[in-house]
Design goal:
alpha+beta, four-stranded antiparallel β-sheet, 61% helix, membrane, ATPase, ion transport
Length: 611
């Protein structure tokens, strides 16, 4: 990025600002304090938020064949839609109260208040009570002409009929009815439900028109907000006749912008950013790595001075997804669905579908290596055409004897975890070198070397591999050199005792942290194994539970069990296969890579809505 400083005469400012927006290259440096105090800007930002929330609501509505236009102009569109949703919420709240009142009549059945009023006018009084069944006294029937109307949930509901003026004193709870009659409540409930359905049907019918108009409206408001941000960012000099602006522009666009500015009556200057500058970030990756940028952005953008970890996490994330999904059949479904939809998809979602194809293919590869296909353990089936490859599947039965009884996929998961951790530490060393100089990365590289050397010295004998004595002493010497950098050069420029103390503390953190980080990667094996086993369980249920049924009935039952069972398993595996690779990436990998984040997206001041 290059910093662009501009000085504009106040009479030319508005015209120049419009031309600068048309170019759409400069990210204007924002004055966050002034923007936070700008009530007009904050109102626009709130409108943008409300429009976004309404778009989400409308996108969740049912598609209908009959598309209608919203009965509101653009200026009042959002308020109109919010009014409909608010009315639906009001109706829902009213229905809760009315249905509660209506339920109060349920124990008493149908009765006429008018007839009761006539009887009361004739000298009779009616009292309604409820009491626990065991507390109801039979003598009440003789004394007060009590009549049990119903019994529900351990309660008796009864009414007494007595002459006017007679006191009715019972150990029972008087029953108070709502002011509205049962018929009135029923009518109100029906009317509100019909109104709610009508509003829902209207929202369904206008959803497509509303979404399109809301998106355009949001862009218009965003343009206004961008202009207000620019106005908040300006500084004025010479009695407010000279306006100063600062912004950022990609290096590759400097020549084009310079040619444009040379034709304008403005002063400009391009300079390189300093360490104190808050420089926006524009990710630049290959076509493959670019597919994983949404994963990076879910956590945080790197700072301008940091390495972009997207190309480094991409192959690991894809592998982790495949290991968690673990089933070749499921991977084939993912690839096929993404491939078919991707052929006619809009550019906005095409990248996600291409990413899905890569993830699906990796899942197919992992599934074939482990011998799992739609929950079928390929190494255990008696299919002649698999006889020659069954011994190659990465299963405990085939390779456990060489690995001390451990499943090979568990060993691979741990090994991949160690590789990614060491890879992250190397990237951290590169970051430190870029920011502060190589000497600040020496200790980190010492840890990388020490871990690798310890792995060789301890791991090879465990695998019964003999290390020649000469090579062993060479490795010890290298390990000693690594220890020197760890304990005496971890804080360049500071004293020996400070370095040694920091080295001891770093050793404790490394010993505890490395073990925990490494064990975290076992989840890749556990989740993949769980999905494969659960798929096999549904296969077994489908065929064992239906054994003995007539052929047609059996086919239908097997089909339903397989479809429902594998759909559930597929959904659970999909969730796990996204969540856990992201967890390993954002926690273990980012931590060891020294990722700080907090970068700001490069967003040039540009025109967003075509006239």
């Amino acid at each position: 990025m290059m910093k662009l400083s501009l000085l504009i005469f106040y009479k030319e400012y508005q015209t120049f600002l419009g031309e600068l927006r048309e170019k759409g290259m400069v990210h204007i440096h924002e004055n966050t304090e002034r923007s936070a105090e700008d009530t007009d800007l904050q109102a626009k930002l709130m409108l943008i938020k409300r429009a976004g929330e309404m778009i989400t609501h409308m996108q969740s509505r049912n598609d209908v064949e009959q598309i209608e236009k919203v009965k509101a102009d653009d200026e009042h569109l959002l308020e109109y839609l919010e009014g409909l949703y608010n009315r639906q919420e009001q109706i829902d709240q009213q229905l809760v109260g009315l249905e509660k009142d209506y339920a109060a009549y349920r124990p008493w059945g149908q009765f006429s208040r008018e007839k009761i009023q006539k009887l009361e006018a004739a000298g009779w009084e009616f009292h309604f009570f409820s009491v626990a069944e065991q507390k109801f006294q039979p003598e009440w029937e003789a004394t007060y002409d009590a009549v049990v109307i119903s019994e529900m949930m351990g309660q008796k509901y009864f009414v007494t009929v007595t002459p006017a003026g007679m006191k009715v004193e019972l150990e029972a709870d008087p029953y108070i009815f709502p002011q509205a009659t049962q018929d009135e409540l029923k009518k109100q409930i029906k009317g509100l439900r019909e109104e709610s359905v009508k509003i829902g049907e209207e929202l369904d019918a206008i959803s497509q028109d509303a979404i399109a108009r809301l998106k355009k409206y949001r862009l218009q408001i965003t343009e206004m907000a961008d202009k207000l941000k620019v106005e908040d960012a300006v500084q004025t000099f010479v009695d407010e006749k000279v306006i100063a602006l600062e912004g950022w522009i990609p290096v590759e666009k400097e020549a084009e912008m310079r040619s444009f500015l040379e034709t304008k009556d403005v002063y400009f200057e391009f300079t390189r950013p300093t360490p104190e500058d808050d420089v926006p970030v524009q990710l630049k990756n290959s076509a493959y790595s670019r597919l994983f940028e949404p994963v990076t952005k879910m956590f945080a953008l790197p700072q301008y001075k940091e390495l972009d970890l997207t190309p480094f996490l991409a192959p690991f994330f894809m592998l982790f997804f495949g290991m968690c999904m673990g089933d070749g059949g499921y991977g084939l479904i993912i690839w096929l669905v993404c491939f078919i939809i991707g052929r006619k998809a809009s550019p906005a979602i095409k990248g996600y579908l291409v990413l899905g194809q890569y993830l699906g293919l990796m899942t197919v590869v992992v599934g074939l290596l482990t011998g799992s296909f739609f929950g079928i353990a390929l190494d255990s089936v008696e299919w002649p055409w698999l006889a020659g490859v069954k011994s190659l599947f990465l299963t405990e039965a085939n390779y456990g004897k060489y690995l001390g009884g451990y499943n090979p996929m568990m060993i691979i998961a741990v090994a991949v975890g160690i590789i990614q951790i060491l890879y992250g530490m190397c990237l951290n060393a590169a970051r430190l070198t870029k920011q502060f100089g190589f000497k600040y990365a020496v200790s980190t590289l010492g840890w990388v070397g020490a871990i690798i050397l310890l792995g060789v010295l301890i791991g090879l004998p465990m695998l019964k591999v003999v290390i020649p004595e000469v090579l062993k002493y060479v490795l010890y010497v290298l390990l000693g050199l690594c220890a020197l950098t760890i304990y005496f050069y971890n804080s360049p420029g500071k004293g020996v005792f400070t370095n040694f103390g920091s080295g001891l503390w770093g050793t404790y953190n490394m010993a505890t942290g490395l073990l925990g980080d490494t064990l975290s990667y076992i989840r890749l094996f556990a989740i993949g194994l769980t999905g494969s086993i659960l798929g096999g369980v549904f296969n077994t249920l489908a065929f064992q539970l239906t054994d003995g049924l007539p052929a047609v009935v059996k086919f239908i039952a097997v089909f339903l069990i397989l479809i429902i069972g594998h759909s559930i398993n597929f959904g659970l595996c999909m969730i796990s296969s996204f969540v856990h690779p992201m967890r390993l990436t954002f926690v273990e990998f980012y931590k060891n890579a020294g990722f700080e984040g907090g970068g700001k997206q490069y967003e040039p001041f540009r025109k967003k809505v075509n006239d």
